[in-house]
Specification:
- The complex is a heterodimer.
- Chain A is α/β, with parallel strands linked by helices.
- Chain A has three domains: about 30-245, Rossmann fold (3-Layer(aba) Sandwich); about 265-340 and about 425-505, Rossmann fold, CATH 3.40.50.300; about 360-425, no CATH class.
- Chain A has helices at about 50-60, 80-85, 105-110, 125-135, 150-165, 180-195, 210-215, 240-245, 305-310, 335-340, 350-355, 360-365, 370-375, 380-395, 410-425, 440-455, 470-475, 495-505; strands spanning about 15-25, 25-35, 40-45, 65-70, 75, 90-95, 115, 120, 170-175, 200-205, 220-225, 225-230, 265-275, 280-290, 295, 320-325, 330, 345, 430-435, 460-465, 475-480, 485-490.
- Chain A is globular and about 70 Å long.
- Chain B has 15 helices and four strands.
- In chain B, the strands form two sheets. A two-stranded antiparallel ribbon of chain B has the order 1-2. Chain B has a two-stranded antiparallel ribbon with strand order 3-4.
- In chain B, α6 (about 105-130) runs antiparallel to α7, α13 (about 270-280) crosses α14 (about 295-310) and α13 runs parallel beside α15.
- The chains are: A alpha/beta, B mainly alpha.
Chain lengths: ~500, ~350
Amino acid sequence: MAALPAVPPGPPLVRLRGIGKRFGPVTVLRGVDLDIYGGEVLVLAGENGAGKSTLIKILGGVYTDFDGTLEIAGRVVRPRSPLEAAALGVAIIFQELSLVPTLSVADNIFLGRPLTRRGFVDTAAQRAAARRLLDQLGLDLDVDRRVEDLSLAEQQLTEIAKALARDARVIVMDEPTSALNAPEVEKLFGLIADLRARGCGVVYITHKMEEIERLADRICVLRDGEHVGTAPAAELPPARLVNWMVGRELGEQFPRHAARPGPERLRVENFSVWRGGRAVVAGVSLCVHAGEILGVAGLQGSGASDLFAGLFGAYGRAVGGRAWLDGQPLEIAGPRRAIDQGLAWLTNDRKATGLVLPLSVIANTTLADLPRLSPGGWRHPGREQAVTRELAATLALRAASLDLEVEALSGGNQQKVVLAKWLQTRPRVLLLDEPTRGIDVGAKREIYQLLNDLTARGLAILLITSELPELLALSDRIVVLHRGRLSAELTRGEATPEKVLAAAMGTA
Amino acid sequence: MNAEVRGPKSEARSPLGRLWANPASRALLALALVLALGCVFHADGAFFKPGTHRDALRQASVFGILACGMTLVIISGGIDLAVGSVLALVAVTFSLLSIHRAWSPVLAVPLCLALGALCGGVAGSLTAGFRIQPFIATLAMMVFARGLAKTISGGMKVSTAVKNPDGSYDYVPVPGVFRFIDSRILGDNLTVVTVIFVGCALLTWLLLARHRWGRELYAIGGNEEAARLSGVPVVRTKVLAYAASGLLAAVAGMCQAAQEQQGDPEAGAGYELTAIAIVVIGGTPLTGGRGGIGLTLLGTLTIGYLEKILSINAVPEATRLMLTGVIIVAAVLTQRRRRS
């Protein structure tokens, strides 16, 4: 593909100028300029949280409230819904597909704008049109099959067919290969080449270096919501690209004390985790010592979170390999067993999997430790209040009352409640997945300080964070996962943003 | 209030607003309105007679007992449609054992309780263990238990008239346990059924408010996945909630049999819906994770008194039903949590 001219001639299909977006007080995009041309594959690159998804959601009419101007085919527009964006020729294929699983392929392709005859859906015409469309795309799909019976790859291809049925000129794909196997990926890449040849503009978001090298005509890099630059792929070799993505000053905002690792706490050997028949973690070996923070780096789909879930027993027994905690074999048999053995897992989504929002601070804090706090089954409200008050003081939790529903707390304080819940179980190993996600700077600092205190008391911590500076500053050692496998292990001294990111993208 | 704190509770600025934000005070207001209605339409002073209140409570008690079990299930995020049929099944069984077989209550009562708990436990296992939706699993149990009640009774009411092989009837005396349950105490001012209801409410309150199991029930209703990852035994906790609901339906069934002095296989039809209405009018939301027995107690009194006031004023049943429908909507509208 690189043989063709990097920027095709002609005016751009889409012109974005000075795009900015705020969520409340948080600015997630600032002054982004971007052109999308027909007949090119434009890769949108950047770390997690760089603003890639926000940008395409603006383009796709999901976010309607933004700064700057959006021009499609020379006209300034402001799509107010994905449907309007589709009418303007922009189709976005999200990771969560927008197909109706119980309808057929043909029905899905024409959903929302059916072919009709005298007011009724003309099924025969739809099937024929869908058939023609799929043939043009070189897709061998039965138009009568229900979408839920298709493989994920076939569903994705159906989604693309649906976009083309609406005459989409710009097609945006958000990490389309994250759930595909190798032959399916090839099929998708073939289709992308075809779209490009037909003069469509393809915007492709990916974290995988090999895909960037293979597909990109041009690369646009975002970092912290700002546009770093856009360049032809030939001018951005992997090393330079990574540098563009990371290039950021690391201030002294992360106070990590010098670690004094003690004896080995957790050892994991040849550990694998299966989800939906796929090994999302494959043969990972690692160890973490008392008083140590082990950073687990990896981009989306790396399996880092699955590693935690697998160790904690959240996926049941769909795991392989062996693990030891303080020299004893770790028995993986569900959350209760994990907690009793001294594991604690702070998940990366406190509202979905961390907190019981309608319950009080006390109820949430004591939830995982109820068996020990309630000998004989009867609760001791006074004792529960006492331990919660103590933890609230340790964590500088600010709540008007400990009887307040956690729903009413700010994000930072909610996160502290989740931490309090796990500290109450007196863990030996803390698995932290995005402990500072979505909380303000002040609360972050307090959590960093807390991690220092905890390791000083001999806890071992495994840490996942998508903020690279945070990972580098907090971790005593870093292991990097790429597609479920260990791709690098770095000491604090060795670790640089470039090395970590390169390993995470699979180029190390 | 701290600047970090936001949300519905801190929005209630005035003391009155804060009071209004509390579901208990809203449920109390509904009850007060109903009682005020009674004071206005007192039917020539009938509303002020102690007997009226005794009867209102007596009639509400069976529903109240069912509603206590329903509260447990609803807090866990589920629903139990089987309680009316389980009530009938137990009423029939209890009558058969006590009247026809002359079993001692020492044996008959525990057996009936176990039967109710078993029905609830099976429905609970279907929903918690096999992941059948609570609505479907308990609907199946509702139909099954009704059929079982008809099978056991041969489709006939089990009364003190015992059929002989030659087709003639012998009339046996009402068993002592029936007469006891249907008797009055405190100088005729309170029925034993009401005492049983209060006992059931107290017991379920104790479990919900003071036992680990109750707390875990709230946690499951509020966020099942978070509860599971916090080590809560989700399946066991939920099965126990349905079993408890079945057990309380058995208690209600025995009370019903005693009051009617017979076991009617058609009894209790639609009672599950009244129980749900009571829970909802009290202010326990069907979404789970919130609410409590105190609210259900208020809901029971509201519905019970409303029925009584309408009946002493000789309002036709058709009108009563329509009014109840309106009241349910009104209660739910006032109980709705406002978005922050």
